[in-house]
Amino acid sequence: MALPDAEQTIAALADRMRGAVAFDAKFVGIYSGGAWVAERLAAMIDGEHPVGYIDVSFYRDDFNRTGLKPAVKRTELPFEVEGATIVLVDDVLYTGRSVRAAINELFDFGRPARVELAVLVDRGGRELPIEPTYTGARLAVARDLSIVLSRAEDGGLTLTTEAGGA
Amino acid sequence: MGPHGEERRELKLEIRNGRVIDPRHGIDRVATLYVAAGRVAALGAAPSGWSANRTIDATGLVVCPGLIDLSARLREPGFEYKATLESEMRAAVAGGVTSLACPPDTDPPLDEPGLVEMLKYRARSLDQAHVYPIGALTLGLQGAELTEMGELTEAGCVAFSQAEAPLTDTGVLLRAMQYAATFGHRVWLRPQDPYLAKGGIAHDGEVATRLGLAAIPPAAETIALATIFALVRLTGVHVHLCRISTAEGVAMVRAAKAGGLPVTCDVAIHHLHLCDVDIGWFDAQCRLIPPLRGTRDRAALRAGLCDGTIDLVCSDHTPVDDDAKQLPFGEAEPGATGLELLLPLALKWAAKDKVPLPEALARITSRPAEVLRSPAGHLGVGAPADVCLFDAGVLWRVEPAALASQGKNTPFLGLEVPGKVRMTIVGGHVVHEESTCWE
Amino acid sequence: MRNPQLSADGELTHLLTLEGLPAEVIVRILDTAVPFTSIAERDVKKVPLLRGRSVFNLFFENSTRTRTTFEIAAKRLSADVINLNIGFSSTSKGETLLDTVDNLVAMNADMFVVRHSQSGAPHLIAAHLNRTGRSHVHVVNAGDGRHQHPTQGLLDLFTIRHYKKGFRALTVAVVGDVMHSRVARSLIHGLTTLGTPEVRAIGPKTLLPTDLQALGVQVHHDMRAGLAGCDVVVMLRLQNERMKGALLPSVGEYFKHYGLTPEKLALAKPDAIVMHPGPMNRGVEIDSAVADGDRSVILPQVTFGIAVRMAVMSILAGN
């Protein structure tokens, strides 16, 4: 199965968002892949799009089973969440659990006016009723493979597959 | 005398082909021991006209004098909930101990002839090991007034001691020693300065510093030793020093003996093997008095026992119930069970320090007998027939079920130790035997 | 003997002592505490990590300060917190320490935060839980006798790392009653584990324990000499009982020789930080000018303390 080119997919995603997304929408990237995509989109789409970062480790639903992840990053939202239009950005949408956690965390900062979801790749396999507002590409991937977005030293983004689901 | 006194006295025992070791007489050879009328009748060749009532095949076993333990707490009177005379006397003979001395820190303390008589009577009626009560040096062990040492001696006390109770008034100590010296009584003292030891629960060293435990410096022992030696010089009383624990202390005893002072000295079996590092993560089984000290001290204790500075080893048997040990280290009750471990741990020490078996056995038979001024502790003709038969080669695991004592509290739980007692004989009758097929 | 606070896989199941804790474990706790520091800045100062879990504060020794910080930390993790002040001795209640623990486990306790006047009490509890197949109930040592106060040690390490970035080039001085201080013991072990090249203890002989050098500490009785060139100065609290125990003659004499004044602090490096586990005795171990001065990081220590405790509880609860 051939993976799409990451850079081209981001461009496609940006095209779909341009004109549709609110002028003052704030982009919140879910670490780490979502954060890189959010930064790219903010640069590519005109308007006031400050970028925030969210680490969902404290809101995951599998804490009791797998414990705390070793490297937890700081959630940083350098803007007022109350009354804002937020676009959550993630690199790969799969079961939907990370997005659920991100929404819960977002709401602990304030009450947004609306929340939209932009994903680079939607691989299906949803376990929660969550759908993206904006999608870069749709893929069908075997359950035992995960799709990973990586960033090279020069900032270039690539999509690869790895063994181990999600 | 027991109900079957007459019959038992007549029992003639023939203990065949054991390795007979009698440290006092320098005997170490395979031979047959003959017992009659509660005493050793002969060794090697049968007495004329001999016919045995019972023959015991001691092939492969060591046959030695019954062990003599100079400190075993029997918990009566007063502490029957911890252990009873019955259980602890059974533990003694299971451990091959045929004579034991018990410290006066019972409840009430052994400061009255009536209490001593009762204890001796109870022990005699059980017809197992001989019990030598150590009387209280002062009334109630309070360190203020003298006890009736004469009356107590008549009731059966063989020496006088403060056990662990402090005697801070050196004037009282001097007079107690003078009074004892007048009548030839011996005084047993544990050298510990109560002020320096106050509140301390561990040896003053790196382990106590790391674990945050209140510490007892070695000076607590050396200062007390210096005081005791000075008073011995003044009074001429014979002092037996109980449970020496420091390297400095051993050196002082060595010098005192070289200077001709009438002192003897013992060490508790646990302190030969363990040191403060064994406390690990606050193991309350290692909460002992005196505290387990450093590796240097342990080495000095072993050397002192080898060269005779320390005369003998005792178990310092102290049964403590489970609940009293399942507490934070500082709150746990100090003490370890030991009657059944005296022989195995002595053998372990001998193996480690390459001490010949007869030398090692002397420390738990003939030497304690001398300090007690007891006729036992040897197998010469006419000696009381107190004999221990043990298998030196076998290892056994220290487990609660394997101990007859009610005290299961020992740092050696779960470990394997050498030496299993197969039979114990007191006054010519068999008081303990493993259920194997004797001939 | 295996460290009872680590599982067979090397995961932290209890936090009893910093002694023998691998550096990776300590660093992980410090790293995890970083994101927790920002929780206090949110509107909703909570994350749902310990939701539905019961944390029992088992305090056998009174301490409102420490208990409150643990309570805040647990509540910010959305845990249910139950406070039990057993008083000064478990035996005064008639029930043994372990019986109390068993009863609370039967009430579905998930975590115990234990403070006790006896060194080794949390170890006893943890060993009991491990032995009876209940190592999923976690024990956090909130101070046992003079043995350890690991969360305080960790927040001290966190504070030092926050201001000094690393440990490998530091000179740290701990001043005061090290003999009776569980805070000092924890800090010393943490510092040496993380590679601090020079750790000094400064105090009179009566207040410094034996064999401190064996822990890797340099001993100084002259405070001026001991402070020379230090990057971090940690002042320990002096308790009144020390005067009664014939360890010190008076507060005045102590302050003269071992109190931190601006003049003595000037002997340390110009950018040295001043720490104190609290509560402070002003004019006894520390001069107000220093306590309120710009080198003091005493108040940030308190804030970091909550984040560090949140990190410890989260890591334990997830293991």
In the residues of chain C, how many domains can be counted?
A: 2
CATH topology of chain A: Rossmann fold
Which percent band covers the strand fraction of chain A? 25-35%
Q: Name the overall outline of chain A.
A: globular
Provide the low-confidence segments of chain A as ranges: none
Secondary structure category of chain A: alpha/beta
Strand content of chain C: 5-15%
Determine and state the CATH class of chain A: Alpha Beta
Whole-number mean pLDDT of chain C = 92
Number of helices of chain A: 4
Tally the beta strands of chain A.
7
**Element-by-element helix/strand order of chain A:** HEHEHEHEEEE
Name of the CATH architecture of chain A:
3-Layer(aba) Sandwich
Number of domains of chain A: 1
The biggest beta sheet of chain A reads: 5 strands, parallel
* Rg of chain C, alpha carbons: 19 Å
* Distance between the first and last residues' Cα of chain C: 21 Å
Greatest interface by residues involved:
B-C, 22 and 30 residues
What is the CATH-assigned architecture of the largest domain in chain C? 3-Layer(aba) Sandwich
Radius of gyration of chain A: 15 Å
Summing up helix and strand content along with how strands pair, one would put the structural category of chain C as: alpha/beta
Structure description:
- The complex is a heterotrimer of chains A (166), B (439) and C (319).
- Chain A is an alpha/beta fold.
- Chain A has a single domain (6-140), classed as Rossmann fold, CATH 3.40.50.
- Chain A has four helices and seven strands, in the order αβαβαβαββββ.
- Chain A has helices at 6-17, 33-44, 63-66, 97-107; strands at 26-30, 51-54, 85-93, 114-122, 134-138, 145-151, 157-163.
- In chain A, β6 (145-151) and β7 form a beta hairpin.
- In chain A, α1 (6-17) crosses α2.
- Chain A is globular.
- Chain B has a domain at 67-372: TIM Barrel, CATH 3.20.20.
- Chain B contains 15 helices and 18 strands.
- In chain B, the strands form three sheets. In chain B, strands 1, 2, 3, 4, 5, 16, 17 and 18 form an eight-stranded mixed sheet that branches. Chain B has an eight-stranded parallel sheet with strand order 6-7-8-9-10-13-14-15, with helices on both faces. Chain B has a two-stranded parallel ribbon with strand order 11-12.
- In chain B, α5 packs across α8.
- By secondary structure, chain C is an alpha/beta fold.
- The longest helix of chain C is centred in the last third of the chain and has 21 residues, at 298-318.
- At the B-C interface, α7 of B face α4 of C.
